[in-house]
Specification:
Length: 352
């Protein structure tokens, strides 16, 4: 359906725009034919409203006859013939109206005949303008559709990238956890059993929350705290941990398992490489329109960088960039024997 005919309000505005054209046509008929204003208006206004509907027809023809390379001459000939026929029918309709007015204004048909050439030329001009506007409208519509499709493809690509990045976390985490349990089976069987129970509970919760697109920061911090609790079974007094969340940031939305690679790295590449172990601090606070999360751990300044040591940080950076664009930021720095990773992301609420 024509966009103007789809809504009554649009049709009313469109017809109202033709009223000044009808008045202009009436003035031309008075100037060329010499009749009265009443006679000219009685012919011009109905004729203008009728031609308003005729000028809607190019919408359907423009859809059927798109502008294509090499088709210019054929297209021009087609539209010229259509314009001549439409303008001729418009002039014929006006003559019929004028003939019906002979009883009121004798000689109306003859006076209109003297302005017929002007009216015919005006009809050609209006029809050509209608064709141009319809082609422009269709081009804008196709542009909007292409933009919508492009945005949809970008959303799908972003979702696929987020899923791919998320799937990198699970195997990596399971490998580290099973390795920890294996290390405990000989040295501390009771600790290994306790760690299995803690790990089972952690996996149940992480699988539940991992299926969500966004979870609250409170849930994410609780997952990090549970993981550190599991690792404390393995490391004993060598590992102490602190998880602090400011209340005004608790309900903010974050991607699930966002902190998992960071706390794993803090244990594996920080505490595990130090004889005396150390303390891991996880903090989260709201700073205006942003949420700032930090993971800080001790590190050996003379440690040897191992292959794969930066995968967790790269994963987090990729997830934030994909999910929030320029609004997601990751900064990592080492200072005075402490390694600190700071995340910044927009503060939004979880919608479920």
């Amino acid at each position: 359906m024509h966009p103007i005919l789809a809504r009554k309000g649009r049709l009313a505005l469109y017809l109202a725009a033709w009223v000044p054209l009808g008045l202009g046509l009436a003035a031309l008929l008075v100037l060329t034919g010499g009749g009265s204003w009443g006679e000219a208006l009685a012919v011009a206004l109905p004729a203008a409203l009728v031609y308003a509907f005729v000028c809607l027809a190019p919408w359907y023809l423009c859809r059927a006859l798109p502008i294509a390379p090499g088709g210019g001459p054929r297209l021009v000939a087609t539209w010229l013939a259509t314009a001549v026929v439409s303008s001729g029918l418009w002039l014929l309709a006006a003559r019929l109206v004028a003939s019906g007015l002979e009883a009121v204004w004798p000689g109306s048909d003859a006076r209109l005949g003297r302005g017929g050439v002007v009216m015919f030329a005006l009809g050609l001009l209006l029809f050509a303008l209608s064709v141009a506007l319809h082609y422009l409208t269709l081009a804008m519509e196709r542009s909007r559709q292409a933009e919508t499709r492009q945005l949809a493809l970008q959303v799908l690509a972003r979702e696929a990238e987020l899923k791919a990045l998320r799937t990198q976390i699970d195997p990596h985490f399971l490998f580290n956890s099973l390795h920890s349990i294996s290390a405990l089976t000989a040295a501390d069987p009771a600790g290994a059993r306790r760690m299995c129970l803690l790990l089972g509970e952690f996996l149940r919760l992480s699988l539940k929350l991992g299926g969500e697109e966004r979870i609250t920061l409170a849930e994410e911090m609780a997952l990090a705290e549970r993981f550190l609790g599991i690792e404390q079974v393995r490391f004993g007094d060598r590992l102490t941990a602190s998880v602090a969340l400011e209340p005004d940031a608790a309900s903010c939305a974050v991607p699930p398992l966002l902190l998992q690679p960071l706390v794993e790295n803090a244990v594996r590449h920080g505490v595990a490489e130090l004889v005396d172990g150390g303390r891991i601090d996880v903090t989260a606070a709201r700073r205006g329109d942003a949420v700032v999360i930090a993971v800080e751990n001790p590190c050996d300044p003379e440690r040897r960088v191992r292959a794969g040591a930066g995968l967790g940080l790269a994963n987090v950076r990729g997830r934030l960039s994909t999910a929030f664009g320029a609004g997601g930021r990751v900064e990592a720095a080492e200072r005075d024997g402490r390694f600190r990773v700071e995340l910044s992301l927009p503060a939004t609420e979880v919608s479920r």
